[in-house]
């Protein structure tokens, strides 16, 4: 049987995070939406060549990526797996709709970001393009803008034509799709992407920003923010 956690049963969770990491940002939003308290362990992705590559952190996450969540003696990695874990342990408020087709739609929106956009403009990919393939800063920006634009264009269309179109990517409350969208739009701005074409997505972003769970997860509000 699925184990549901109650509020007074849990020890404080530890989130290995970096303020600017969009995958960490997703998990911070999910934790906040669930009303969970957690301790942040900052892993600086640039300092000293990147703290994620240190032996101590590689024992936490062999992939040398943030986030990682420690809960009940277990360490979980991969933001989507972490968020689905949280959703199963702490079902309220739900991060996925109930209906299987609706659930698949929301997951597909989240995966467009988490599998198709974010991984190819991630720090280690850009570092490789720059250091090994000798691409210029301009080329890196063009690369990131290209893939972000392609993915967000598809997502904009999906959101506009989604059933139960409302304030969020799907329905009246935030789901995994919104949780992935907001950090990705912040990333897009860092790469100077033109977001003016994405009216539906930026309207959803504004609706999310009005919620404390999203606002408090923003990079600039984190203890390790520079
Ligand atoms: N698919 C992973 C992606 C994790 C990831 O790429 N994290 C980035 C920060 S957003 C990272 O740690 N980058 C370090 C690096 O590229 O060296 C997830 O969703 O958790």
Quick structural gist:
Helices cover 49% and strands 8% of the residues. It is an alpha+beta fold. The chain has a 4-stranded mixed beta sheet, covered by helices on one side.
How does this structure look, described?
By secondary structure, the protein is an alpha+beta fold. The chain is built from 9 helices and 4 strands, in the order E-H-E-H-E-E-H-H-H-H-H-H-H. The protein has helices at residues 22-33, 55-60, 79-89, 100-117, 123-131, 137-161, 176-190, 199-209, 212-215; strands at residues 13-17, 38-42, 68-71, 74-77. Strands 2-1-3-4 form a 4-stranded mixed β-sheet, covered by helices on one side. Strand 3 (68-71) and strand 4 form a beta hairpin. Helix 4 (100-117) runs antiparallel to helix 6 (137-161) and helix 7 (176-190) packs across helix 8. 35% of the residues are buried. Bound molecules: glutathione (GSH). Glutathione (GSH) binds next to helix 1, helix 3 and helix 5.
- Bound ligands, named by name, code or SMILES: glutathione
The number of distinct helices, counting runs of at least 4 residues, comes to: 9
Q: Calculate the terminal CA-CA distance, rounded to whole Å.
A: 44 Å
Q: Kindly report the oligomeric state of this protein.
A: single chain
H/E element string? EHEHEEHHHHHHH
* Cα shape: globular
Question: Could you tell me the mean pLDDT?
Answer: 95
Question: Secondary-structure map with pairings?
Answer:
Elements: E1 13-17, H1 22-33, E2 38-42, H2 55-60, E3 68-71, E4 74-77, H3 79-89, H4 100-117, H5 123-131, H6 137-161, H7 176-190, H8 199-209, H9 212-215
Parallel strand pairs: 1-2
Antiparallel strand pairs: 1-3, 3-4
Helix pairs in contact: 1-3, 1-7, 4-6, 4-7, 7-8
Glutathione binds next to helix 1, helix 3 and helix 5.
């Amino acid at each position: 049987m699925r184990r549901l956690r109650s509020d007074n049963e849990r020890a404080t969770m530890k989130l290995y995070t970096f303020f600017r990491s969009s995958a960490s940002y997703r998990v911070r939003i999910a934790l906040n939406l669930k009303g969970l308290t957690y301790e942040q362990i900052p892993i600086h992705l640039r300092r000293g060549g990147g703290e994620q590559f240190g032996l101590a952190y590689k024992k936490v996450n062999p992939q040398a990526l943030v986030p990682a969540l420690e809960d009940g003696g277990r360490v979980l990695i991969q933001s989507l797996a972490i968020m689905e874990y949280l959703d199963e342990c702490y079902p309220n408020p739900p991060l996925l709709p109930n209906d299987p087709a609706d659930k698949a739609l929301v997951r597909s929106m989240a995966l467009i970001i988490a599998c198709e956009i974010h991984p190819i403009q991630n720090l280690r990919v850009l570092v490789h393009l720059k250091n090994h393939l000798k691409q210029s800063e301009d080329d890196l920006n063009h690369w990131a803008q290209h893939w972000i634009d392609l993915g967000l264009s598809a997502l904009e269309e999906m959101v506009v034509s989604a059933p139960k179109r409302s304030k969020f990517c799907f329905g009246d409350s935030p789901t995994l799709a919104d949780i992935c969208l907001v950090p990705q739009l912040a990333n897009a701005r860092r790469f100077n992407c033109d977001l003016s074409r994405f009216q539906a997505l930026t309207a959803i972003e504004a609706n999310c920003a009005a919620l404390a769970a999203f606002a408090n997860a923003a990079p600039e509000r984190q203890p390790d923010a520079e």
